Amino acid sequence: xxxxxxxxxxxxxxxxxxxxxxxxxxxxxxxxxxxxxxxxxxxxxxxxxxxxxxxxxxxxxxxxxxxxxxxxxxxxxxxxxxxxxxxxxxxxxxxxxxxxxxxxxxxxxxxxxxxxxxxxxxxxxxxxxxxxxxxxxxxxxxxxxxxxxxxxxxxxxxxxxxxxxxxxxxxxxxxxxxxxxxxxxxxxxxxxxxxxxxxxxxxxxxxxxxxxxxxxxxxxxxxxxxxxxxxxxxxxxxxxxxxxxxxxxxxxxxxxxxxxxxxxxxxxxxxxxxxxxxxxxxxxxxxxxxxxxxxxxxxxxxxxxxxxxxxxxxxxxxxxxxxxxxxxxxxxxxxxxxxxxxxxxxxxxxxxxxxxxxxxxxxxxxxxxxxxxxxxxxxxxxxxxxxxxxxxxxxxxxxxxxxxxxxxxxxxxxxxxxxxxxxxxxxxxxxxxxxxxxxxxxxxxxxxxxxxxxxxxxxxxxxxxxxxxxxxxxxxxxxxxxxxxxxxxxxxxxxxxxxxxxxxxxxxxx
Length: 510
Description:
This protein has 23 helices and 23 strands. It is α+β, with helices and mostly antiparallel strands and 510 residues long. The N and C termini lie far apart (93 Å).
C-alpha cells in the first residue's frame, strides 16, 4: 500500500511520467500490483525503472512511545533524527501518529532502524537508564532554560530526556558515561533540602500535636535526625498537618517516625531498577498476593521499586517476606546487610553511599525500619566488602553517653540550635535518643572528645538548678492555683527560677 501511494504520489511523479510516456500504467485494485502494458522493450525498461525506484525508496514505519518521539527531535543538529538522516535515508516523524517513517535503500533503512532502536532501548554499547527524580527536584536538576541538563550532557556525553509521565530522567549513552551522569543527578538530589507535608488524622492529631510540641518526644527525635518539624493548622478546622524540612532520606524517615508514633498507615519502599522489578513479577503475582494475604500489607509496584503499605507490624512482616523472596528471585544481584540502628543512621552518609556506589557499581539503600543496608547490582560482593570496611572504621570512632531526662531539651536547644552548633563546631555526628536517654557521638577521636566536653558542660552548668518535686494528691490544686496563679506569683518573685509542671500534673520541676 505504501509503495503504491509512493509511486502514484509526488515523489514518484518523475518515474511515473517516464513510464507513461511509452507504456500504459494501471493499478490492480485487488492485489495492489502495478500493471504495465507496451512493447516488450518498453515494458522491460519501465519495469527496471519502477523496480529501481522502489528499491531506493524501501519504507519502514516504526511506532514509538510519545515521550520517545519528543526525544528523537532533541539536540538540534545532533538529534537522533538528524543523525539518522545523514546515513542516506529519509526520516520522518508523522504528525498523525507515533510512527517514525524511514525511507531509502533497504540496507541503509535496516541499519538506521537498528540505530533507532538502540537510541530508544540501548544495546551494543549504548545504555538506557531511568533515574527517579520526582517533582521536588525536577526544577533544580533541569535549571533555567535547561542549563543544568545541557551541562550534564556536555560533561558526560549522554542524552538526558525528562519523562513527565513517570517523574524520571532517562539517560542514554555509553555505559560508564551513563553511570557517571546518574551519580551526578543522585548527588544533587541528596544535597537538596525538601519540604513535605504529612497529614494527621482526627483520631491521632492530639497525640501527635503534643509529641511535636516544644520538648515533645517526637520533635526531639525528628530534630536529632536533622529534620525540622512544624505544625500547620487547617483553616477549615480539620486535623493539622506537619511540615517536615530536611534532606530527602531524612524527611522520608521523619515521615515514617510520625506514622509509626501515631499508629497510622505508613509505607516502606524497596528500591529496585526496571529490570529487577520486571523479574520480581507484579503485585498480582502469586508471591506478592501471598505476602498480602499473610501480612495484611498492601503491595504496590512503581517505576523505581516496590512499596509496602500498612501499620507497623504488617509492614515489618511484609518487608521480611519480601526480602526473602527477592533474594531468591534476584540471586546475588541483591543483598541485605544487617547493622546496628546507630550505624544505619550515621556510619553511612549520603556522600559515603554515592562513593561506594561509584566504586562497586551497585545501588545502596538505607533501611532504618529493619536496621539494614540493602545492596543491589551485578557486583554485590564488592559492595559488601566496602560496607564491612566502613563498619570497621566506624566502630572505632563512636561513643555513647547517658544523658539525664531533664537535660535532653537543653542539649537539643530551641529548634535544635544547640546540638547543631556542637555538630558544626566539632564536625561530629550526634544522635540524641530521648527515649533511651542516650547520646551517641560519631567522628574522629579528638572531635568526639570536644563534643563530649561541650555536652557535659551543658549538663553540669544546669543540673544544680534542676529538681523534680512530687506533689501530694490533695495539694495539687492549692499549689498550682486557679489558672496557674500561684505558680506565676512564685515565679515572678524568684528571679531566675522557672517552674514547670510534669506531663501528668503530679510533679513540678524547679
